[in-house]
């Protein structure tokens, strides 16, 4: 990473009080940023263009990390397709326009691999992004994020505004969302297994049939990728951030059960959706463009996440 790139910079991290954002803020403090603003939705409603412009005009950041998103697992996406499309589009458009208007040096936009076509060849390459429609259960969210990548490219072309788009694979780690109504797969599995151990339950029920594969990136590895890209990358062309492996849901929950000490039955409810059949990213571009490679193994990352949840579940 370029030495001192963040030193003495004024930086805004939208979604900075969330899971990924909190780790980004910690890393920016260590990197010497002079001022970090991390507004919550109570501080500024990014869906409101006037509120967004007023906030960024007041903060006058040199750099923006746009992490704020309306996001959840399969169930949450199925319940809120319109809300997820509208609010993600609106927040992104408002932040990008304000960044253009006030001459922000660079905006780092975190997209999603939900933007990829449902049956994209494995591993997903950035060039395949437009070759089909996303998996149906999260398509509105994925299409909104993909449209914002197009906006980033258009703003670079017309205005010279620098907005880089990064697409992390499924994130996990300490401080994740463990609410079963809206959590993603790893925190949901961890909570179900730990709760079952605590209550003495002999069965854990899981969605789907266990056949889909996913790739997972430990949150602090993702932060390293975001900061490297912020310092070293200027093109609007989207770049994958991943760990370079895939694992079946069946194998993932068996690993989590082993690490949490759950010895009961793992029951798959096949009436529930599987989501996208396979997910694994080609991470060649991230390595070539800004020398990023994930360092944390899945087992090590799961241990850290499980320990954090066990230490904090009462407070949660």
Describe this structure in words.
With 316 residues, the chain is of the alpha/beta class. It is 42% helix and 15% strand. It has ten helices and twelve strands. The chain has helices spanning 19-30, 49-59, 74-79, 81-101, 139-159, 185-199, 219-232, 249-260, 284-290, 298-312; strands at residues 10-14, 35-37, 63-66, 106-110, 163-168, 170-172, 203-207, 213-214, 216-218, 239-241, 247-248, 265-269. The chain has a six-stranded parallel sheet, with helices on both faces. Strands 6-9 form a two-stranded parallel sheet. A two-stranded parallel sheet has the order 7-12. Helix 5 links the parallel strand 4 and strand 5 (163-168). Helix 1 (19-30) packs across helix 7, helix 2 (49-59) packs across helix 4 and helix 6 (185-199) crosses helix 8 (249-260). The radius of gyration is 19 Å and the shape is globular. The two termini are 35 Å apart. The mean pLDDT is 95.
Overview in brief:
The protein has 316 residues and is an alpha/beta fold. It is 42% helix and 15% strand.
Question: Which helices and strands appear, and what pairs or packs with what?
Answer:
Layout lengths: L9 E5 L4 H12 L4 E3 L11 H11 L3 E4 L7 H6 L1 H21 L4 E5 L28 H21 L3 E6 L1 E3 L12 H15 L3 E5 L5 E2 L1 E3 H14 L6 E3 L5 E2 H12 L4 E5 L14 H7 L7 H15 L4
Parallel strand pairs: 1-2, 1-3, 3-4, 4-5, 5-10, 6-9, 7-12
Antiparallel strand pairs: 8-11
Helix pairs in contact: 1-7, 2-4, 4-5, 6-8, 6-10, 8-10
